[in-house]
């Protein structure tokens, strides 16, 4: 056989192989929020779905909260793994409700509020009204919070007004907030922060929520995953699997703690998967009778 012919055949075989691989690798973009629990579950699902025989090509798109909803609604992202309902995220969903599908609950009992170390002499948000100077941070009575676009940030401004607190909210990142809490905790000094459950901090520190008699932060909620319109028809297998996915304080807390310990989300998630294979196999097995994605 002439070398030229051999070269063309080889090129054709390579092209066919690449085409088959491209068909086998299912593309999935997950809108990911910079929150501990969201980073944890996004990396967990990325690793699971990239395993053989699933062979997804998963991209984690790190975005702000409002962009997660608009991006999924526009189809720039396929899914996002965290929306709190019925109340917290209702305003984020409303503008896009005709272009989003809200799917099943994977975590029950989500909540948020103001949190202090267990050694702090306060049990209610109302107690802070007379203790503002006790919680000085960078020269001012302060509640240390996260990014100003978050629901908990907005609710904290409402709490400051409702309880007439002589305090400001200092918006930062979750990382900066946790660093401030850790520093105060190590020195046994008062500190009040905005926190939510689930969060790894409750496994690492002795913390307590301050009672909220005015119910500013609302009742316990559930965490759902959500998708662009039509995703369930495009990928019934993954929809079935994610609808079967359930985590509780023990499983999610241990995943977040493993990531914190490893110092790397993907490595920590990989270690957790290895240690919890029967649980993740149970989720994945739920899709056995579902149609494969188009």
TrEMBL record:
InterPro entries listed in its UniProt record: ABC_Gly_betaine_transp_sub-bd
**UniProt signal peptide:** 1-22
UniProt entry tagged with the keyword Transport:
yes
UniProt entry keywords in alphabetical sequence: Cell membrane, Membrane, Signal, Transport
Q: Which residues form the ABC-type glycine betaine transport system substrate-binding domain?
A: 27-275
Native source organism of the sequence: Modicisalibacter luteus
List the Pfam families hit by this protein, alphabetically. OpuAC
Q: Which domain of life is it from?
A: Bacteria
Transmembrane regions listed in the UniProt entry: none
Q: What is this protein called?
A: Glycine betaine ABC transporter substrate-binding protein
Q: Which PANTHER family match?
A: GLYCINE BETAINE/PROLINE BETAINE TRANSPORT SYSTEM PERMEASE PROTEIN PROW, GLYCINE BETAINE_PROLINE BETAINE TRANSPORT SYSTEM PERMEASE PROTEIN PROW
Location(s) in or outside the cell = Cell membrane
């Amino acid at each position: 056989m002439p070398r030229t012919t051999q070269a063309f055949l080889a090129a054709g075989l390579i092209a066919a192989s690449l085409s088959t691989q491209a068909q086998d690798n299912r593309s999935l973009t997950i809108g990911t929020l910079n929150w501990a629990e969201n980073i944890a579950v996004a990396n967990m699902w990325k690793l699971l779905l990239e395993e053989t025989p699933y062979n997804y090509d998963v991209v984690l798109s790190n975005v702000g909260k409002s962009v997660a909803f608009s991006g999924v609604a526009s189809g720039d992202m396929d899914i996002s793994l965290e929306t709190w309902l019925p109340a917290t995220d209702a305003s984020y969903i409303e503008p896009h409700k005709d272009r989003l599908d809200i799917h099943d609950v994977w975590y029950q009992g989500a909540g948020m509020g103001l949190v202090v170390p267990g050694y702090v002499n306060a049990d209610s948000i109302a107690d802070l009204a007379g203790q503002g100077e006790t919680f000085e941070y960078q020269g001012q009575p302060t509640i240390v919070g996260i990014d100003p676009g978050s629901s908990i940030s907005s609710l904290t401004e409402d709490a400051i007004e409702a309880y007439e607190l002589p305090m400001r909210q200092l918006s930062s990142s979750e990382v900066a907030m946790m660093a401030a809490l850790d520093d105060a905790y190590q020195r046994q000094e008062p500190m009040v922060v905005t926190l939510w459950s689930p969060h790894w901090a409750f496994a690492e520190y002795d913390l307590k929520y301050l009672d909220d008699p005015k119910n500013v932060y609302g009742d316990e909620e559930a965490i759902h995953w959500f998708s662009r319109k039509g995703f369930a028809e495009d990928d019934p297998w993954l929809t079935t699997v994610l609808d079967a996915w359930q985590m509780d304080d023990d499983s999610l807390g241990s995943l977040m703690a493993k990531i914190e310990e490893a110092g790397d989300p993907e490595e920590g998630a990989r270690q957790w998967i290895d240690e919890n294979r029967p649980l993740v196999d149970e989720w994945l097995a739920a899709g056995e009778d579902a149609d494969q994605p188009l």
